[in-house]
Amino acid sequence: MKKIILSLIIILSVLLGTSGMAKNEGKGNLKRFALIIGANNGGEDRIRLKYALTDADTMHKVLKELGGVEEQDIIFLKEPGNDELEKAIAQLNQKVLSEKNNFERIETFFYYSGHSDEEGLLLGKEKFKYDKLKNLIKKIPSDLRISVLDSCASGAITRLKGGVKKAPFLLDSSMQMKGYAFITSSSYDEASQESDRIKGSFFTYYFVSGLRGAADLSKDGKITLNEAYQFAFYETLAKTQKTSSGAQHPGYEIEMNGSGDVILTDIRKTSVKLVFDEEIDGRISLINRSGVFVAEVQKPKGRTVELSLEAENYEVLLENQGKIYQAFIELQNGTRVFNLSEMKPVMQTAYAGKKGKDEDLVEIPFSIALLPSISTGYADGKRVKHNFSINFLADYSDILSGAAMGGVNMVGEEMQGFLMGFIANSVSGKGYGIEYAGIFNYHGGYFGGIQNSGIFNYNKVETDGAQFSGIFNYSGGDLRGVQMSFINISANMKGTQLGFLNISDESKGVQIGFVNTADNFYGSQIGFINIADQVSGVQLGFINIADKSDWPIGFLNIIHEGQHNLSLWVDQLGLYHAGIKLGGTYLFTSFFAGADKKFETNTIGFSIGAHIPLGNLPLFIETEGVSEDYCNLKDKVSEIGALPGESKWMNLLSFKLSAGLKLNSYLSIVGGISVPILYSYGFQGQGEEKTTPRLVEGWKNFNDKGWKTLVKNSQLFIGIQLF
Questions:
Q1: Residue 191 phi/psi, 5° resolution?
Q2: Could you say which of 345, 371, 404 is where a domain stops?
Q3: Taking Cα atoms as reference points, which of 325, 161, 116 lies closest to residue 254?
Q4: 345, 380, 398: which is the final residue of a domain?
Q5: From CA 342, how far away is CA 295, in angstroms rounded?
Q6: Over the stretch 187-212, which tens digit does the pLDDT of each residue have?
Q7: Is 637 in a helix, a strand, or coil?
Q8: pLDDT tens column, 659-671
Q9: What angle do CA 405, 406, 408 make, to 5 degrees?
């Protein structure tokens, strides 16, 4: 009896569960909305921030990519006033209400990066009070409301109810939380600090790094609110301990009910992942091609770290026991496992700024120098940031943000702006902008911009932009852009090389020169001689050489894995031909000669054609444009639709269409038709000109049954191809 009752209870539970599911049928599980605000301007009495808009854009990207927030559900405000902010919150309310009946759960995310004080957000000349902001956010009719404020004294918003500096909180692991959470980048009496090194605020930088996977301590691919806050708390505190503004303590106020933690991002199903293997040990920084620090994590040996990123090129820096290692990688769809063997040590001088603190940097707006030590911009051994510098012989800046002109301009860590060196420009680290030099430009780190020099440009690693010089350009890493010089050399090229000699490893784009060489090439090589290993694209030149090439167009194509056949055929004129066909996967050139049985009529010719395989069948089709010279064709000229001429030499341009059956790897049977188009007679004697080309009979009146004449003048042929 007990078994029967237990069975009935189980059946009833299942039926009730099914009924509950039926009620929610057609209803989505979760919908998210976000209001993101960036404001550099905090009023006339506040220093204008550099990176608040950048921080807001960074948060916008990570929520869209990994946080499940669709673009149409994000409200993004830049430099708003009070009215604009209040209207945006009202708009957010309406969005939530419109979807309330369509989803089981709705969450909202509010983010602000900008100025604030103990009373509220500073929006230009206006102040949006914390108590008003807090009340408006609490009234949003969503199940969960998360607010992140990255601004000075933002902890005051939590202090309204007694909030203080707080270490990371702990929640359990289910998904039933309802209520609100306010996360602040600093306490009520602290400054929220920006960094020129990471081009953003410390807190947002580490909070976003955590959301991309650096905070995933549980290794489940889901980044919770607790994990992200915990990661940002400790990293922000550690990085600001010794700054002139003092340690920065993120804080929070949470009023939630239910059990569980809130999942902010999910990196399990993202299309682009970067995994650092177990052998890597140290602090890893990722920098995109624009020079922006995207993520940073302290990686312990023996544990993998997985990050979800955008598909683009990155510089990877590893700091371990005072040494710096570097690599450049390209991320595409899929999972990329990064190994320690890919990293190379770099000179400390190139990245000294990453070890120095921002407050150790002396900023000098204007300087005049004879030599680096004889300068108005000299800071007695301290690191120097110049905005504008003029020198007569040479000058040195640790960081240049602006312009420098003179004999030799030297920069240690980073250049942003314009360098004009009558002799040379030398940057040990990375640079962004324009460089002009009489003799040469040198970069030890990444460069993005335009380089122009009289003799050469030498970039040790990656280059985004353009290099122009008189003799040669060199990029030791990836080149994305243009190289124009007598000689152009790059490791990997995405763009255009234009010069007498162009050399690259793996390349995507165009090489135009007398001689072009590459390993794997995707695009077009245009030159007198083109040389490559694997070519996916076109080689256009007099001589094309490759292991494998799809579309070689030239007089002589030598393709190892292409076509190199001996052809033998006979046509209706009674001429026997032998030819050599050389080409790539699809295009080929052919050289041939022929004669009749008595060798009274001779021919020699050249053709360019296309080879079209028919899938996996042993069949193929070939089309050719043919130029053929006949000697002593005599009365047979009428058979191809030509009028008799006095010269024994006649040139004929024709179109050939053939089909082939591949019997085995070495032998094919080929047959087809040759359609004559134009003919002309050769030189009759010394001083006499070649006749004007004429259309063969049938073309002039093609629409008026002339095609029948053309068919009659066409010649059938049959033969074999060997190898």
A1: -90, 140
A2: 345
A3: 161
A4: 345
A5: 19
A6: 766 777 777 677 778 889 889 988 99
A7: helix
A8: 999 999 889 999 9
A9: 115
